[in-house]
């Protein structure tokens, strides 16, 4: 029994209450422990990824109860990749939040942050459908807390919508699980797969309803149109570093779709045929288009980034919805890219927001304008999927994988036109924020020196740390580009593993015999 | 030098100028120059090999799965372009050093320039079309930075965005085209694609691929109707214009057409699309150029025209035309870069480039005049300069070209273009340098230092030398580059010389030059007529389109996301219903396997009251207190139903949850209006009502269908029933599931509960830290308050009940493993015991007596649960593996111990902490100064002091 499997869940689950209990008033200590825990998670997940890289599937039976009767954690290439991604992202966001002092603007940031990580990582590792629900709840409730961190009327208003919408989603999740259990009598995903495959073909309607409801739950999480309405306002009004962390949350939805619709309701399972691809692909394309339109139509930088997140989910889900190994490999590459890119952009948006407010308009030149502009340019390239960053490769991979599909022209067309709209929108925003400010009436230059400078908050002692975080993310994107070859071999191996779930099923269920 | 290094050098070197600018402008410029020089030298080292016909390659597998590989090759065409890019790049770096003023951030300039240069070199050396695409889009991006370099100028920003939009969209179209092309050829490697002419041209996808690729080329090379971005890109500093619009960016489209020529050219589609576009562009550009008063605007449209010329030649599809195209690329690059630079010098010295404000500069700026004169005459097609050579060859070629049966269409338009071309070239000279000296120049024009004129002087030297010794100087380069364009095979016969005899082309040239001179003579009236004529202004249209797009996008976005959660929810539910129904409809339903049970009268009564309560909530939900009471009824009936349906654990849990929830909600209600206002129109409510009814029927129907059927396979709960006592040590299966079989779920859920309480706490903290606090402090109750807030009877009763309730909690806790109960229910009961004290004696009094910090209680609960789970590691068992045994301690009866109880203790603590933290947080809203009383009730039973007045504020 490899206890390392549960370590990335337990570590934050222990550090968080420790922070609450013991480090109540010591922001420095909280920062130290929170960072240490996140670094620890990163190291553990790296170790797990190395273990998973050779294709072995590991299972951890909680309470020593065999699957499907107890809960199991399962580590395969996909879950390993996702937790490494989570840890890397979390580290960058945490450093940023500490550096800007965001973490001190409300109660319990670090505890909630750790719980949030626990929920996300748990969702990636669990092999049990109900346990997935539990981790969804953990990550959601922690995200509510992080979302309203530091308060403010608009944030609360958006927070209420976020909570209400996700409660609807959670209710739906319970309906889905209830239906699936009532039909199959099991909750373990591997066991579900086995039982679904053996289901009589003349009684499929109820199972199909359950499978569809589950897909809808994940689609809500993944912000697929028309189930994305929770996202724009909440991401735009959340503390933007938190929104950066949320970049991984939509991926949880995409992950769950991938997991369940390859393992349990795979493409070759007849009883659930036609549930996913048929509507998900058009919906994903519309998501992409609406996201791009939103980027062009946004008048506030937070909202712009929120729609950027939506559009990248559109591209990602387009690939997922193809449900072929090539497309899934492309989707996995794009997942890594879009998570890092979206996070980077939210952090940059926060830098702008802290210095000159959220409106996309020319204001007096802000502090460190040059560096931030450079970061914005790089981030925009990543988001729009322009070379030389990984977004371009990801986009090419997705388009390449779509070749041969009936809707290939639609897919290519929507991806390319959306890219154009995104470019126009980002160029517009960037030139307003970073360039036009230099063209403001020439007096401002002279007046500026004497008059009060624009409020520059929270760039106190650790002002380098936010840039370290941003450039770290950018470096990760560059690495992802340069190492596209090895990365794609991993993604392809992962996709292969997903589409040949026998090893997974055997590992999880074989032990049941003992 | 490796091709990798040549391509990478500009990118690597791009770092230095931006850094070294702190060491001075010369350091910065030298770094840029040295980088370029190194790359250029590296390139020239390959010259002997290239001229001997070798193709130098460098390959690296980057992403073989996709076919995207870092493969480079250097053949004649690549060599020609790389020479132009790096060679002219060197001159530009020199020129820019003296052109830019002290206020301009020179470090940035050279960095952008090198990035752009690297992208261009990458394009011309790529052996992989996906790699080429990367560099292609990079040129769009880096030129965006260059064009917008003067970021304080609106023209610069707008020009940059326009250029990015147009060339970027072309690039995107090209992505599609290249993917198709690679699909047809089965490889993205150019060297493979170039071998598959027949395959590609026979494919049904040839036309889509061709069109998409050509859109990319045309946008980049500013072909009609995408030409309009180029003049607006002139807002950039002149070195940028000179570089981008003579030798590099705009030539990228030409390069690609030349590169793809062997496989794409030669079909009627190619001819009619490419040649016609080129022809129209050539004529149109030449005509417009004549009427531009801005020097750079004139040059911009002349560039458009010359690009059209080259495009047309490539479009002809004949080998000879391709050779001429290559030759003209060289010539145009030399004279046009020189012209831009001299225009820049004029601008730099006279502080204007408006032709109307210039004139008579030939005496003031003799050096500049000489340079401009030679370059402009070459552009006009006057011998012996190089422009004449290629232009005459072009005219000759048009004569032999038949367009849709017409022998005169192509040469006719070409002649018009040549005529206007001569005219605007003459105008560039005559209106700027000739004429009387003026005394109203904005600046003091004089020749600049050598730094500025050296670079264009070098170029016009080439203009002259190539014109005179074309076969010797340019011949080999043209041959080897044209050889690459036509893709192997014999070069057609041609000769690069000034005198070809009395050919039709010569007559056409004479007509063009003479006509051009006449046109210039009549320039005044013609100009007035032109200005009077209505014509579309591309920028206005473009801006309007962009503005409309942005407004449309905003309209769509804001219209779709109007912020109404009711609508979001309605869409979600409706969508779920539709897809759920689709899933159900597309499946098959087997017969029901269970029979309906008879309905007993008493439970039926309960359910009837449930239905009634629900209906009443719908009818009276605007009265919030009433709605809350009715919700309580619902909860109660649900609890009883659980009990009736043999789920006592659930019933107990539900009951205690109900109590806690109602108390918390009552507390919250205290701060809210008593009535819910009507916020939506009746129609919306009707819509929502309809959706709700359908959703209710849907979920009811689903549950009914599920309950009427057995499991398809034995459910896992059978295992739980069988192993609860044997493996879990408890006879209450529900509790064993909670703390053992699925203890990990419980572990997660207590964390959820704890976080929920923390969120409530954080929320109150944030709210109380805002302006809301003032509102709360000044809040007047809208209804009369009870006279005694803390009635004695209640205080006494709750004091008595507290130990009793705690006893019950303990009892419930300990029996949980075997009988209905457990940590969760016990925690709720214990919390209720404390809540009663809050209710009876008030928040302040109770808080003062609270010893434990609720956050800490939650934390300890989670930690105890985690520690219990980790304990199993010491036996090398997985997390949460339970252990149990039996102890006999006389005089007690034998009793069971189980680690699960410890876990349950964690659950208990987390629940207590969470509930109380939530309550405490919400209570803080009610705090007002003076509210606290040192007594537990409103009167002091001991009467040893005066009753304290209630706070009267």
Residues in helix, % of chain B: over 70%
Please provide the count of β strands of chain B.
4
State which percent range the strand residues of chain B make up: under 5%
* Total tally of structural domains of chain A: 2
Low-confidence stretches of chain A: 443-461
Low-confidence stretches of chain B: none
Q: Residue share in helices of chain A?
A: over 70%
Query: What spatial order of strands do you see in the largest sheet of chain B?
Result: 1-2
The secondary structure category of chain B is: mainly alpha
- The dominant shape of chain A is globular
Morphology of chain B:
elongated
Give me the Rg of chain B, rounded: 43 Å
Q: Largest interface here, residues on each chain?
A: A-B, 138 and 132 residues
Mean pLDDT of chain B: 87
Round the Cα radius of gyration of chain A to an integer and report it: 22 Å
Structure, briefly:
The complex is a heterodimer of chains A (514) and B (953). Chain A has helices spanning 7-22, 27-52, 77-100, 109-125, 129-147, 153-184, 189-197, 205-221, 231-237, 240-263, 277-297, 301-322, 325-356, 369-384, 390-402, 408-435, 443-450, 464-482, 484-499, 502-510, and strands at 58-61, 72-75. Chain A has 514 residues and is mainly α.
């Amino acid at each position: 029994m490899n206890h390392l499997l549960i370590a990335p869940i337990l570590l934050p689950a222990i550090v968080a209450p420790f922070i609450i209990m013991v480090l109540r008033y010591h922001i420095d200590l909280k920062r130290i422990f929170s960072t240490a825990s996140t670094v620890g998670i990163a190291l553990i997940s790296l170790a797990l990824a190395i273990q998973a890289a050779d294709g072995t599937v590991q299972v951890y039976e909680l309470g020593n109860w065999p699957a499907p009767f107890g809960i199991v954690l399962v580590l395969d290439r996909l879950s390993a990749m996702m937790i490494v991604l989570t840890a890397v992202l979390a580290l960058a966001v945490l450093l940023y939040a500490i550096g800007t002092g965001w973490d001190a603007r409300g109660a319990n940031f670090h505890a909630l942050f750790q719980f949030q990580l626990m929920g996300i990582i748990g969702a990636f590792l669990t092999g049990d459908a109900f346990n997935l629900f539990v981790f969804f709840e953990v990550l959601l409730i922690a995200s509510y807390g992080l979302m309203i961190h530091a308060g403010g009327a608009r944030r609360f208003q958006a927070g209420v919508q976020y909570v209400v919408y996700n409660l609807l989603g959670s209710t739906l999740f319970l309906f889905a699980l209830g239906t699936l259990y009532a039909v199959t009598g099991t909750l373990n995903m591997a066991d579900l797969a086995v039982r679904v495959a053996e289901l009589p073909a003349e009684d499929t309607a109820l199972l199909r309803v359950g499978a569809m409801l589950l897909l809808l739950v994940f689609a809500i999480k993944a912000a697929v149109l028309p189930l994305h309405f929770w996202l724009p306002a909440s991401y735009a009004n959340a503390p933007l570093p938190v929104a950066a962390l949320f970049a991984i949350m939509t991926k949880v939805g995409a992950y769950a779709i991938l997991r369940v619709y390859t393992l349990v309701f795979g493409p070759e399972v007849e009883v659930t045929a036609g549930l996913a691809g048929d509507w998900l692909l058009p919906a994903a394309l519309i998501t992409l288009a609406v996201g791009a339109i939103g980027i062009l139509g946004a008048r506030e930088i937070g909202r712009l980034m929120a729609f950027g997140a939506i559009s990248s989910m559109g591209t990602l889900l387009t690939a997922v919805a193809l449900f072929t190994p090539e497309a899934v490999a492309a989707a996995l590459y794009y997942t890594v890219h879009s998570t890092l890119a979206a996070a980077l952009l939210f952090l940059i948006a926060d830098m702008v927001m802290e210095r000159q407010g959220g409106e996309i308009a020319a204001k007096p030149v802000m502090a460190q304008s040059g560096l931030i502009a450079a970061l914005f340019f790089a981030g925009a390239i990543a988001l729009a999927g322009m070379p030389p960053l990984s977004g371009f490769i990801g986009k090419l991979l997705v388009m390449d994988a779509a070749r041969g599909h009936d809707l290939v022209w639609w897919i290519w067309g929507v991806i390319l036109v959306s890219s154009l709209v995104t470019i126009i929108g980002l160029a517009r925003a960037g030139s307003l924020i970073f360039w036009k400010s230099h063209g403001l009436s020439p007096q401002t230059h002279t007046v500026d020196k004497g008059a009060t400078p624009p409020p520059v908050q929270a760039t106190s002692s650790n002002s380098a740390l936010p840039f370290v975080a941003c450039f770290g993310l950018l470096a990760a994107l560059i690495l992802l580009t340069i190492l596209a070859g090895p990365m794609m071999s991993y993604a392809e191996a992962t996709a292969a593993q997903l589409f040949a779930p026998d090893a997974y099923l055997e590992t999880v269920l074989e032990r049941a015999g003992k | 030098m490796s091709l990798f290094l040549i391509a990478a050098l500009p990118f690597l070197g791009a770092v230095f100028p931006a850094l070294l600018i702190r060491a001075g402008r010369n350091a910065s410029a030298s770094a840029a120059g040295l980088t370029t020089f190194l790359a250029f030298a590296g390139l020239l080292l390959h010259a002997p090999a290239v001229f001997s016909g070798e193709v130098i390659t460098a390959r690296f597998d980057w992403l073989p799965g996709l076919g995207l590989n870092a493969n480079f090759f250097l053949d004649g065409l690549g060599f020609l372009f790389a020479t132009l890019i790096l060679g002219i790049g060197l001159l530009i770096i020199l020129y820019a050093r003296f052109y830019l003023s002290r206020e301009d951030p020179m470090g940035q300039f050279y960095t952008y320039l090198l990035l752009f240069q690297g992208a261009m070199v990458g394009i011309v050396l790529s052996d992989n079309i996906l790699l080429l695409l990367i560099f292609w889009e990079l040129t769009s991006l880096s030129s965006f930075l260059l064009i917008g370099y003067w970021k304080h100028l609106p023209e610069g920003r707008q020009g940059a965005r326009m250029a990015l939009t147009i060339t970027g969209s072309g690039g995107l179209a090209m992505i599609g085209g290249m993917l198709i092309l690679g699909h047809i050829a089965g490889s993205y490697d150019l060297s493979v694609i170039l071998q598959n002419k027949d395959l590609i041209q026979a494919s049904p996808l040839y036309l889509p691929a061709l069109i998409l690729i050509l859109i990319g080329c045309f946008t980049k090379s500013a072909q009609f109707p995408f030409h309009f971005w180029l003049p607006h890109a002139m807002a950039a500093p002149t070195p940028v214009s000179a570089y981008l619009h003579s030798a590099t960016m705009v030539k990228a489209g030409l390069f690609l057409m030349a590169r793809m020529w062997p496989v794409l050219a030669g079909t009627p589609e190619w001819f009619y699309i490419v040649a016609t576009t080129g022809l129209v562009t050539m004529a149109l550009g030449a005509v417009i150029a004549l009427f531009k008063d801005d020097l750079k605007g004139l040059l911009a449209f002349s560039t458009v025209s010359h690009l059209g010329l080259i495009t047309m030649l490539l479009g002809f599809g004949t080998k000879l035309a391709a050779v001429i195209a290559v030759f003209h690329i060289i010539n145009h690059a030399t004279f046009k870069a020189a012209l831009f630079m001299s225009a820049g010098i004029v601008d730099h010295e006279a502080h204007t480039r408006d032709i109307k404000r210039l004139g008579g500069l030939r005496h003031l700026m003799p050096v500049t005049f000489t340079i401009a004169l030679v370059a402009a005459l070459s552009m006009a097609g006057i011998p012996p300069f190089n422009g004449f050579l290629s232009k005459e060859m072009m005219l000759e070629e048009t004569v032999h070209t038949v367009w849709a049966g017409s022998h005169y269409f192509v040469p006719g338009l070409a002649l018009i273009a040549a005529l206007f071309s001569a005219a605007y070239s003459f105008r560039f000279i005559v209106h700027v340098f000739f004429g009387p000296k003026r005394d109203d120049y904005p600046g003091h024009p004089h020749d600049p230092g050598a730094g500025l004129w050296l670079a264009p002087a070098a170029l016009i030297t080439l203009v002259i030398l190539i014109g005179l010794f074309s076969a010797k100087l340019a011949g080999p380069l043209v041959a080897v580059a044209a050889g690459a364009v036509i893709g192997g095979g014999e070069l057609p016969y041609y000769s690069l010389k000034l005198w070809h005899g009395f050919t039709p082309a010569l007559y056409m040239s004479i007509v063009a030059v003479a006509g051009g001179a006449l046109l210039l003579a009549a320039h005044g009236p013609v100009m007035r007529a032109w200005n009077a004529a209505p014509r579309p202004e591309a920028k206005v249209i473009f801006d309007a389109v962009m503005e409309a797009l942005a407004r449309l996008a905003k309209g769509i976005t804001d219209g779709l996301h109007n912020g109404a959660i009711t609508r979001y929810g309605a869409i979600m539910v409706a969508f779920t219903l539709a897809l759920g129904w689709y899933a159900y409809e597309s499946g098959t339903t087997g017969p029901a396997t269970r029979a309906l049970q008879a309905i007993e009268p008493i439970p039926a009564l309960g359910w009837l009251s449930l239905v009634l309560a629900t209906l009443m909530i719908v009818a009276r939900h605007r009265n919030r207190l009433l709605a809350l009471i009715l919700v309580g009824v619902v909860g109660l009936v649900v609890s009883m139903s659980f009990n009736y349906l043999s789920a006592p654990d659930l019933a107990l849990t539900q009951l205690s949850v109900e109590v806690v929830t109602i108390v918390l909600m009552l507390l919250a209600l205290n701060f809210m209006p008593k009535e819910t206002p009507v916020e939506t129109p009746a129609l919306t409510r009707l819509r929502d009502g309809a959706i709700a009814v359908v959703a209710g029927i849907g979920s009811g129907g689903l549950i009914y269908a599920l309950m009427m059927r057995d499991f398809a396979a034995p459910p896992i709960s059978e295992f739980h029933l069988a192993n609860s006592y044997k493996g879990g040590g408890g006879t209450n299966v529900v509790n064993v599931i909670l703390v053992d079989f699925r203890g990990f779920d419980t572990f997660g859920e207590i964390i959820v509960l704890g976080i929920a309480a923390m969120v409530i706490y954080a929320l109150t903290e944030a709210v109380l830290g805002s302006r809301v606090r003032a509102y709360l402090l000044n809040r007047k109750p809208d209804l009369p308050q009870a006279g005694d807030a803390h009635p004695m009877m209640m205080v006494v009763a709750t004091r008595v009940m507290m130990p009793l309730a705690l006893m019950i909690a303990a009892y419930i806790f300990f029996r949980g493993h075997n009988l209905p109960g457990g940590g969760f229910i016990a925690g709720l009961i214990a919390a209720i015991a404390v809540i009663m004290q809050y209710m009876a004696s008030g928040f302040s009094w109770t808080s003062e007596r609270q010893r434990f910090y609720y956050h800490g209680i939650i934390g300890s609960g989670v930690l105890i649960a985690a520690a219990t789970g980790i304990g199993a590691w010491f036996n090398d068992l997985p997390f949460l593996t339970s252990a149990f045994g039996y102890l006999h301690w006389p005089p007690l009866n034998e009793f069971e111990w189980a680690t699960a109880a410890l876990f349950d203790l964690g659950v208990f603590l987390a629940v207590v902490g969470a509930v109380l933290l939530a309550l405490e947080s919400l209570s803080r809203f009610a705090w007002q100064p003076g509210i606290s009383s040192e007594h537990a009730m409103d009167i002091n039973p001991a009467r040893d002091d005066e009753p304290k007045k209630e706070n009267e504020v």
